[in-house]
Amino acid sequence: MTTKHKKDVHILAVDTSCDDTSVAVLKNDTVLSTIVSSQIDIHKEWGGVVPNLARREHEKMIDGCIDTALKRAGFGDGTIANRATALEQITALAVTWGPGLAPALEVGVRTIRELALEHNKPVLAVNHMEGHTLSCLIRNSNGNYYSGIPSTEAVEFPALAVVVSGGHTELVWITDIGNYELLGETLDDAAGEAFDKIARMLDLGYPGGPVISRLAEGGKRDAYPLPRPLSQKPGLDFSFSGLKTAALYNTNALKEELGPEGFAKIIPDYAASVEEAIVDSLVIKSRRVLKKREPKMVLFGGGVAANNRLRYKFRELCKEFDVPVYFPEKKFCTDNGAMIGLAAYYKYLRGETVKNVAELDRDPSIRIDTAI
Ligand code: KG4
Ligand code: ZN
């Protein structure tokens, strides 16, 4: 992969698609600063993200995150009063315009729209899923890929991206940066959502993925047989709602049979069985792609890509097919502004700036393969 451009491109990127207010500043494909203000503590008492609370919190945090990100990148002094001077160093602004929660997306889109009009900057409207899809390609300021991709020459297409987050589960065929084919996706719940919902049944709190994964380390993965939905059917789509329902019946029966203390003892085995079922479902469909197509690399993205068992099983799978597999640095698995800035950088090189910034709006249900 070669990227030729004459001048350095500095991008200020914002993502408010769900429950993190994320801002980053990039110089080309390298990250100068990244800020994530998490709302987990606010939403966890509700067991999931509450859209209007998310909007309120984004509104509260967005300006501070922007000024801090600019300051940490070496631009400005971190105050809103000094923002105009800081923005002189910025080539373009970027924002996630979808998919995501409408009230949350609106905050980022409105903020960037107003900033762009006031300071006369071009805007890149980025698809959140393209951000996750490309998150292995983020570099640090030494020029190294956080994901461990050994060099620019090792970035080769076509590639298969497995994007597994709280809202999406997608197999994306990348023929080139900016060129995507959606091979398969979930028909109901996302992989992260399955972790979150099953964790709630087990009274383990929110978000469920990290806690299930931690408990699973000491558990027996074959202790409780759980379904791998759609694995017997052809195709590349996923389904996790059947697994969730099976877990619901199963845990209710076990709670009754074992009582609270007995049930608490089997939680590590249950968590391990759940984790195995979710990861297996992903492996089964990805294996089908690897059998039929020959990607030059496999790239992961999304919060669930932080999962250690998933990483282990996909390293094994990809070894079998002799294809390199990369995972984003953990801080770039979950939502972050850096991945949006990276996707925006390539859009900028392709000349894909927003034509009418005043009319820029969010699109909560846009797909990765939608042409704009
Ligand atoms: O990508 P992300 O921040 O949000 C969306 O864009 O949806 O992903 C959040 C999801 C949550 O469902 C969370 O439970 C899951 O990622 N997650 C994990 C792990 N860390 C986060 N799932 C499994 N194992 C983990 N270690
Ligand atoms: Zn996300």
Characterization of this structure:
With 372 residues, the chain is an alpha/beta fold. It has ten helices and ten strands. It has helices spanning 40-43, 51-72, 83-87, 102-119, 128-133, 191-201, 208-216, 241-292, 308-320, 337-349; strands at residues 10-15, 20-27, 30-38, 92-98, 123-127, 159-164, 169-176, 179-185, 297-301, 325-326. Strands 3-2-1-4-5 form a five-stranded mixed beta sheet, with helices on both faces. Strands 8-7-6-9-10 form a five-stranded mixed beta sheet. β6 and β7 form a beta hairpin. α6 (191-201) crosses α7 and α8 (241-292) runs parallel beside α9. The longest helix is centred in the last third of the chain and has 52 residues, at 241-292. The radius of gyration is 21 Å and the shape is globular. The two termini are 24 Å apart. 50% of the residues are buried. The mean pLDDT is 95. Residues 128, 132, 165, 302, 335 line the site of zinc ion.
Short description:
The chain has helices spanning 40-43, 51-72, 83-87, 102-119, 128-133, 191-201, 208-216, 241-292, 308-320, 337-349; strands at 10-15, 20-27, 30-38, 92-98, 123-127, 159-164, 169-176, 179-185, 297-301, 325-326.
N- to C-terminal distance: 24 Å
Helix content: 40-55%
Tell me the series of helices and strands, N- to C-terminal: EEEHHHEHEHEEEHHHEHEH
The bound ligands are: 5'-O-[(R)-(carboxyoxy)(hydroxy)phosphoryl]adenosine, zinc ion
Strand content: 15-25%
For the residues shown, what is the average pLDDT?
A: 95
The tally of beta strands, per DSSP, is 10
Please state the CA-atom Rg, rounded to the nearest Å.
Answer: 21 Å
Broad shape: globular
